[in-house]
Amino acid sequence: MSAKYRRIKQTDEALPAPLRWLTRAFSSITLAVILLLLVSFYGALGSVPLYFICIGLAWLVIFGGLVGAVAWGSVRLANAPDWSGKRKLALGGGALLAAIAAAALLCWEAYLLIGMLPVFEGHKQTILYRLPAIEKNEIEFFAWWPLQVLLILFIINMVWATVRRIEFSFPRLGVLMVHTGIVLIALGSVFYGRAKLEGDMFIVRADLPGAQPVSHFYDRVKPAVFVSVDRAPSVQFVLPELPRYNDYAIGELDIRLHERPEFRDRFLDGLRITIPGFIAYGELEPTWVEAPAESRLPRAGPALTVAMGDRDLPGNDDAVTLPFANAAERVLSTDAWEVEYLHAPSPQRLDDLLSEAPADAMSAPYLLKIEIPGRNHTEVRAIAEGESFEVGDTGYRIAVEELGPYGLPFVSEGYEGAADTHARLLVQRPGPVRPIQRYALHRYPERSQDFVEGKRGDPDPSIRTAFLDKSKVQVHLVTDPPAEYAAAFENVPPDSLWVLLRVAGIAPIFSPLAEGKLPLGDPDRRDAWLHVIERYENAVPAQQPTVTPRPLRDPKLEGTYEMALLPVTVEYDLRDENHRLTGETFSRTVTLRQMPYLEQVGGEMRPQTVSVPGYGNVEIAFGRQRRQLPFAVAMTDFKMTPYPGSDIPRDFHSDLLVYQVNEDGEPGGDTIRPFQPRLNNPAIVRSPGAPLALRKIKLSQAGWDPGDPDISEADKALRDDAGRFINQQRFTILGVGNNVAIRVIALGGVLMGVGIPWAFYLKPYLMKHRIRKFNEKLKQRQAAEETVEDAGPTPPAVDLPPAASAEQQPRRELVLAADEHG
Questions:
Q1: Cα-flanking dihedrals φ and ψ of residue 736, to 5°?
Q2: Is the pLDDT of residue 790 over 80?
Q3: Percentage of the chain lying above the pLDDT 90 cut
């Protein structure tokens, strides 16, 4: 304790009790150590998974308790008067070893016990800020108010203790620099956390149509929703309460945008927009839904959703929708069976599918139905590859050239991606005419065709063929069959679902599917039953949000919203033509994928439009907070310099023009000057009149357009004299950031770097030099006093203060010098 602090403590005694306790607390080194430990623990909470923090705390308690108990016992043992030193040492050492062994055993048990707690099931790598009650990313967590409060208390403690405890002298300048550096680093960290900006901006090349200078950027971490009606300018709603790492089912959230003042000021009463749930990491799987009345999507007509299951329940995880209008998707096929959905089949098609084979051909895998209308001849027969036969006495002869899968891909509209089996037949017609090579298709007979002398055409109507594939179990789910087929069954509702079953060895079966299920193969197998679980009168393609399992997630993308899915519900109280409430409410929920930039639309990253009856088209986009800049940026050119002989970029940069902006954020001033941020060489834009966080903005090259995919090969090869590509990049992405108080933090580091060696090396030298000079002066004074005594009697005494007496003054100065040394 320095002499300065002893004097100040004496003056503190006159203060009232609460103020005295407070000033004593903030003058103590103990409080500074406690605050530093709390800051360190906060940093550990934001870096180390909770599982390991709990284990570390448990181990600390175990070791601390046992070591404390052993220390207490050792003290008691050392004071025992009847025990010898060797006995005390042996007993103390044994107790220490036993304590270490017990601590190790207890730590292992604690490790196992903590690992068994349900709270850590599947969350052993979870960091504190990922818990549902907090939901922050790393940047937000370390800028959160608890750490800010700890740092401010630490700053007050350091300043108060420095002023009250440390002598302001030249030797102690190093200690003062260290304390000042610590205070500057902590103070700079507070400002840095409060004013730090990070984001990026999307800029289209200025010579492209619609390109405008950009005066805003998108925050890197803060999500937002943008709402507009009938293409009006969108309104931004920042979502600080939106989760980040955890999933919430529909109904578990209730974020109401319509209760915010900016919503009520912009949109009419009756419109409500709510965020009812959240998927932190998911995918949009293609699916089918019933077409909403206001949907503008192309309708696919009726559809069925089927799933395999057991006798009682379907397995909904494997559900598949069969839209009739899509030839490729209306069929579900395996190696053992095929399921096809048929809506309103023609009587001819149904008659072909119900054709019975002769008794001796019931088990044949392939059948051919042949009709000769002009000869009133119809027959069904089994066929095999390579055989040839006469068609009754009609004069027609057919040779079977090939059977099996139709190898050519379907490219006709409506049949893209479809597959089928076929019979390639050589049909010899009566008379002197050339033979026909016919491709008869099983599932899509309307795509059958004839080739005569290499020319393709529709099948010759003089001979009609229907190829029937029974190599698998064939299931046809039928809705709206011809009336003459449904009339054979009594009391069957007109909207019933029917099944047509064709299995080798038995006659075709056609009947209502009363329970919506039928067995396929072995009934004892889990996947042996086919269940129809949904019917759509008018299906449209949609996307179904699904949660990605945690083991399949990319840790780098978690918490960034890049893979997040946001359901948004739009509601509106319907009105009649006189604008009076009808009592009905329109409601629709859409799922949004985050758009990094509203200016770049593509794939799943696009706004969703909800057509609200009587209100308008409401467009909603999920993105990041859009922040205004005190300037606008335009890109005039982009250049990428590759390594010689390759397309690998060695350097790339944007040529920018920076404009002043008016109060509305629109470019309205003169060009400030051109900038050229390069790879690893950002440009600095200063705006002296802007708020503190925007006065100095750093623009760095963060990304660029890989090139126009529609550009010609000739343009792709265009390069300038330096080998740089020309006119390929349509946009650039600039990183936007600031470094508020970074110089304050750097100055604090410099002061600590200078002050630590001063305090540990220069200060002791200065103090030793001061004491040596003091001792020399003391010896000179003592020698002078001895010379005076030898010269004669002492002159009359003069009254002096007690501290200035000859005997006490040297001793008092020595004490002060010792205090000064610490």
A1: -120, 130
A2: no
A3: 36
Q: How many alpha carbons lie under 13 Å from residue 666 in its C-beta half-sphere?
A: 2
Closest to 39 in 3D by CA, of 139, 150, 135, 125? 150
The pLDDT value recorded for residue 807 is 45
Question: Dihedral angle at the C-alpha atoms of 803, 805, 808, 809, nearest 10 degrees?
Answer: 70
pLDDT value for 77:
61
Tell me the average pLDDT across 419-433: 92
Query: In sequence order, which residues have a C-beta less than 8 Å from that of residue 387 and are 6 or more positions away?
Result: 399, 400
Identify the residue with better confidence: 12 or 135: 135
pTM comes to 0.73
For 650, the 3-state DSSP assignment is strand
Q: What are phi and psi of 624, to 5 degrees?
A: -115, 160
Instruction: State both tokens at 388.
Output: 């040839």
Which pLDDT score, from 0 to 100, does residue 815 have? Answer: 47
Assigned token pair, 181: 């550096």
How sure is the predictor about 818, in pLDDT bands with cuts at 50, 70 and 90? Answer: very low
Distance CA 165, CA 542 (A): 71
Per residue in 58-93, pLDDT (tens digit) is 888 887 787 777 767 666 666 666 655 666 666 667
- The residues near 623 (Cβ < 8 Å, ≥ 6 apart) are 218, 223, 224, 225, 226, 594, 595, 596, 597, 598
Question: What's residue 499's pLDDT?
Answer: 94
CA separation for the pair 259, 267 (Å, rounded): 11
**Spatial contact of 382 and 356, defined as CB atoms under 8 Å apart:** no
H or E element that contains 103:
helix 85-115
> Could you tell me if 562 and 594 are in contact, meaning their C-beta atoms sit under 8 angstroms apart?
yes
Measured CA to CA, the distance from residue 25 to residue 682 in angstroms comes to 46
| 786: exposed, middle or buried (Cβ count in 10 Å: 0-12, 13-18, 19+) | exposed
Of residues 155, 177, 181, the one with CA closest to residue 168: 177
* Tokens linked to 324: 């009739």
Write out pLDDT tens, residues 199-209. Answer: 999 998 887 77
**Are the beta carbons of 698 and 738 closer than 8 angstroms?**
yes
* Separation between Cα atoms, residue 491 and residue 120, nearest integer Å: 59
pLDDT value of position 669: 60
With residues binned 3-state (H G I as helix, E B as strand, rest as coil), the percentages for the chain, rounded to 5, are 30, 30, 35
Report d(CA 217, CA 230) in Å as an integer.
24
- C-alpha–C-alpha distance, residues 218 and 598, integer Å: 9
β-pairing, 539-547 vs 282-290, is antiparallel
Residue 295 has a pLDDT of: 56
Give 717's contacts (C-beta < 8 A, 6+ positions apart). none
- Rounded to 5°, angle at Cα 417 from 413 and 422: 95
Residue 211 contacts residue 549 (beta carbons within 8 Å): no
Please answer whether residues 465 and 459 qualify as being in contact, where contact means their C-beta atoms are separated by less than 8 angstroms: yes
φ, ψ for residue 686 (rounded to 5)? -105, 140
> Higher pLDDT residue, 818 or 498?
498
pLDDT of residue 808: 45
Neighbours of 49 (CB within 10 A): 17
Q: Which pLDDT score is estimated for 156?
A: 93
Q: What is the pLDDT of residues 15-37, one digit of tens each?
A: 888 888 888 888 888 899 999 99
> What radius of gyration, in Å, describes the C-alpha atoms of the chain?
43
Contact 406/439 with Cβ under 8 angstroms?
yes
CA distances to 326, 421, 600 from 412, rounded to whole Å, are: 12, 17, 33
